[in-house]
Automatic annotation (TrEMBL):
Its cofactor is pyridoxal 5'-phosphate. GO terms for molecular function: adenosylmethionine-8-amino-7-oxononanoate transaminase activity; diaminobutyrate-2-oxoglutarate transaminase activity; pyridoxal phosphate binding. One of its GO terms (cellular component) is cytoplasm. The gene is bioA. GO terms for biological process: biotin biosynthetic process. Its main location: cytoplasm. The modification N6-(pyridoxal phosphate)lysine is found at residue 278. It is an enzyme of class 2 (transferase). Keywords: Aminotransferase, Biotin biosynthesis, Cytoplasm, Pyridoxal phosphate, S-adenosyl-L-methionine, Transferase. This is Adenosylmethionine-8-amino-7-oxononanoate aminotransferase. It is found in: Cytoplasm.
Length: 430
C-alpha cells in the first residue's frame, strides 16, 4: 500500500520545482513525502521514520515539534504576527537585536533584519560598499571571497560563491570578485592562504570593500575545516589594509561549532559584519540578521535620505520569526553550549571506529565529516538512497559524508547514527 506516498510524489513532480535538484532525476530519487516530525525524526506518509542527520539543511537545532519554540510562536501569533519595521517597531525585534548585540559585548550593536541567508549576504555587501562610498571612498567596490566558498545563490551572493555547480551557469551575470586560496585543515595550508590574501590586499586594497568568509567550516565546500588562527590572521590583515571583514555565520553560528558564534574561537577582534540565519529560529521561520559596528552604522548617519541604507524586505523583522529566535536564545542562556560539548564527545566516540575505513574523519563541535576514498560515480545520490533504508536522512556532498544533527544526541542516538552510517557505507561500497 504505497498509494498515498506515490500520489504525493507524483503531484509534487507535476507542480513543485524542487530546489537544488535536477528534476529529471526525480524518478531515480523520488522526494520523501514527509507527514510530520518529532524530535530528530521525520515520518513519511506511510509511517516510516528517518533521522534528520543534516537538520533539514542545517536549520533545525532542537528537533522537530519543539514545544518551547512552538509555544513562543503561538503566543506571538495571537499578539502580532506581522507589522512593517519602517515607521514601526516591536518588542520581539528590539529584544532580539539587544540580545545578539550583548553576545558580542556590544561590538556589533546594530542589527539589520533580512529574510534568508542570501538576503543577509546581499545586505552586508551593500552596506560595506555604501559605507565606504559615504566616507568618500567610492572606489572601494570589489569583493573578496575564498576558494570553494558558499554564501548563497542570489546574484550578489553567488558573486562571492565559488562552488562550480551553483555558479558556472550564471557566471556571465555575476560581479567580478576576487577568489583567494582558502585554508584547509586537511592540507595544513593556513599560512599559505594568509600569504595569498596579503598579496591581494597589498595590491588592491584601494579598490576592495570587503572580504567575506565562513568561519571555521566551509560548509557547502564539503565541511572543510580549518584552524581559528586563520581567522585571527585574516582579521589582522583586513585591519592593516583598511578592508571590511564579513563573517558569514549563517551555517556555523548558534552553537554549531562549540561556541555561540564560531568567531569567538578565533580570539580575534570582532569582524565588521556578522551574519546569522538558518539555526537562529531553530528550523521554524525564515529570518536572517546582519550585525555590524558603530563605525559602519555612523557612515550612514545624515540628514540626507540617500546616504541612509534604504534596503528593505516585506517581512523585515517579522515578529513571529523574532519570537522564535528569542526562544532559541533562551536555550543558549540556559546552558545549551555545555550540553553540546557533551553531545559532540558522544559523536566523537561513536564514530572513532570508522577512522580506519575512511579518510579525514574530522569534527568541529556538532559537525562531523569524513571523505570516502575511491567513491563510485553518483556516490552522494546512492548513499542518500541507501541511507533511507537504514532510517537515515542524509545528503553527502560529493564524496564527503557529514552529519550536522539536531542538538539531541544521547549515547543511544550516537550509536544509532554510527551504525546506520556504517551500514550504508557497507551497502554502497559493496
Ligand atoms: C545556507 C547558507 C547561505 C544562504 O542561506 P539561504 O537561506 O539558503 O539563502 C549563505 N551562507 C552560508 C554559509 C550558508 O550555509
Amino acid at each position: 500500500m504505497t498509494s498515498r506516498m506515490t500520489s504525493l510524489q507524483d503531484r509534487s513532480r507535476q507542480a513543485v520545482w524542487h530546489p537544488c535538484t535536477q528534476m529529471a532525476r526525480l524518478d531515480a530519487v523520488p522526494p520523501l513525502p514527509i507527514a510530520h516530525g518529532e524530535g530528530p525524526w521525520l515520518f513519511d506518509t506511510d509511517g516510516n521514520r528517518y533521522f534528520d542527520a543534516n537538520s533539514s539543511w542545517w536549520v533545525n537545532l532542537f528537533g522537530h515539534s519543539d514545544k518551547p519554540l512552538h509555544d513562543a510562536i503561538k503566543a506571538q501569533l495571537d499578539t502580532l504576527p506581522h507589522v512593517m519595521l519602517a515607521g514601526c517597531t516591536h518588542e520581539p525585534a528590539v529584544r532580539l537585536a539587544e540580545r545578539l548585540s550583548a553576545r558580542t559585548g556590544g561590538a556589533l550593536g546594530h542589527v539589520f533584519f533580512g529574510s534568508d541567508g542570501a538576503s543577509a549576504v546581499e545586505i552586508a555587501l551593500k552596506q560595506s560598499f555604501h559605507s565606504w562610498k559615504n566616507r568618500g571612498h567610492a572606489d572601494k567596490r570589489e569583493f573578496v571571497c575564498l576558494k570553494n566558498s558558499y554564501h548563497g545563490e542570489t546574484l550578489g551572493a553567488l558573486s562571492v560563491t565559488d562552488v562550480q555547480v551553483f555558479r558556472d551557469a550564471y557566471d556571465p551575470l555575476l560581479l567580478r570578485s576576487h577568489i583567494v586560496a582558502s585554508p584547509d585543515g586537511r592540507l595544513g595550508n593556513e599560512a599559505e592562504a594568509l600569504a595569498a590574501m596579503r598579496a591581494l590586499l597589498a595590491e588592491r586594497y584601494a579598490s576592495i570593500a570587503c572580504v567575506i568568509v565562513e568561519p571555521l567550516v566551509q560548509g557547502a565546500a564539503g565541511m572543510v575545516m580549518y584552524s581559528p588562527g586563520y581567522l585571527k590572521g585574516l582579521r589582522e590583515l583586513t585591519r592593516e589594509f583598511g578592508v571590511h571583514l564579513i563573517a558569514d555565520e549563517i551555517a556555523v553560528g548558534c552553537g554549531r561549532t562549540g561556541s555561540f558564534f564560531a568567531w569567538e574561537q578565533s580570539q580575534a577582534d570582532w569582524p565588521d559584519f556578522l551574519l546569522l540565519s538558518k539555526g537562529i529560529t531553530g528550523g521554524t521561520m525564515a529570518l536572517s540578521l546582519v550585525l555590524t559596528t558603530d563605525d559602519v552604522f555612523a557612515a550612514f548617519w545624515s540628514e540626507d535620505v540617500t546616504r541612509g541604507f534604504l534596503h528593505s524586505h516585506s517581512y523585515t523583522g517579522n515578529p513571529l520569526a523574532c519570537a522564535a529566535a528569542n526562544a532559541v536564545l533562551d536555550r543558549f542562556d540556559a546552558g545549551q553550549l555545555d550540553a553540546n560539548r557533551a553531545q559532540a564527545e558522544r559523536l566523537t566516540r561513536a564514530f572513532a571506529p570508522l577512522s580506519s575505513r575512511v579518510s579525514h574523519l574530522r569534527q568541529r563541535g556538532m559537525i562531523l565529516a569524513f571523505d570516502v576514498p575511491e567513491a563510485p560515480p553518483r556516490f552522494a545520490e546512492a548513499f542518500h538512497l541507501k541511507a533511507r533504508e537504514h532510517e537515515l536522512l542524509i545528503r553527502p556532498i560529493g564524496s564527503t559524508v557529514y552529519l550536522m544533527p539536531p542538538y539531541l544526541i544521547d549515547d543511544a542516538t550516537a550509536a544509532f547514527l554510527a551504525g546506520a552510517v556504517t551500514a550504508t557505507l557497507n551497502d554502497v561500497l559493496a
